[in-house]
Amino acid sequence: MTTTDKQLPANIMLEKWADIGFFWQGALTIAELPRLAEQAEIDGVLAASVALAKTDGIIWLNYQLSGNLLLQCQRCLEPLSLQTQEQYRLAVLADEAQTALIDDADYLLLDELGAGNVHKLPIKQLMEDELLLGLPLSPRHDDCQMLINDDDTQEQEPEDNPFAILAGLKEKLS
Questions:
Q1: Which residues make Cβ contacts (< 8 Å) with residue 112, sequence separation at least 6?
Q2: Which residues, including other chains, have CB under 8 Å from residue 66's CB and lie 6 or more apart?
Q3: pLDDT tens, 44-81?
Q4: What is the number of alpha carbons within 13 Å of residue 24 lying toward its C-beta?
């Protein structure tokens, strides 16, 4: 199945699409990724594509995300633009014995996707997780100059020294 420009479903039913394949291409908005919305904004939309295919008994999920995220610089608090363009590949396995067949690829077990014969792959959640993991812990501009407050640079009047009286008494005793 190929779909374009329609909204990406929140879940992909593996029993339905694993054998015939699934392909989707389109755009994701910030409204579709609520956890990401707490950390960043999307400048426009994120271009995304998802492909699901079964090869040699293993279900492979390939997806790409590209776009511009707007974060807040932790130094100057101004917007910081972060370009993202990532490709991900994930194997969906029936059991851990199949891990020997996928080389060092990331994988997900069918048991983690639900009990019984219905396995829903939460594609939007997976994409959102990858975007969140790719965000810097403390975003800041490379050449960020913090604003200097002019009030802090004024000379301060010297404070009275509480030991000045003792110094005067010491001079009288000598």
A1: none
A2: 46, 47, 48, 84, 85, 86
A3: 888 999 999 888 888 889 999 999 999 999 888 888 89
A4: 22
Q: What does the alpha-carbon distance between residue 141 and residue 81 come to, in Å, rounded to a whole number?
A: 9
Closest CA to 70 of 32, 31, 30: 30
Amino acid at the residue 137:
L
Give ∠ CA 108-16-36 in degrees, rounded to 5. 50
Q: What is the pLDDT of residues 26-43, one digit of tens each?
A: 999 888 999 998 988 888
pTM of the model: 0.72
Contact status, residue 134 vs residue 46, Cβ threshold 8 Å: no
Q: Residues near 121 by Cβ (< 8 Å), separated by ≥ 6? A: 11, 12, 13, 14, 52, 61, 92, 108, 113
